[in-house]
Amino acid sequence: MAVEIEKNGDVWTIIHDRFDEARNAMSPEAADAIVAAFEAFEASDAKVAVFWGKGGAFCAGWDLKYATTLTDREKLQKEIVEDLAFPVGAAPAPRGPLGPSRMELSKPVIAAVEGPAVAGGMELAMWADVRVMAETAYLGVFCRRWGIPLMDGGAVRLPRLVGQGKALEIAMTGRKVPAEECYRIGLCEKVVPEGEARAAAEAMAHEIARFPQAAVLADRRTIIESRGMSVRDGLRLEWANGIDACRKDAPEGASRFAGGKGRSGDFSDI
Question: Which of 39, 47, 180, 182 could form a cystine bridge with 187, CB 3.0-4.6 A?
Answer without folding.
Answer: 182
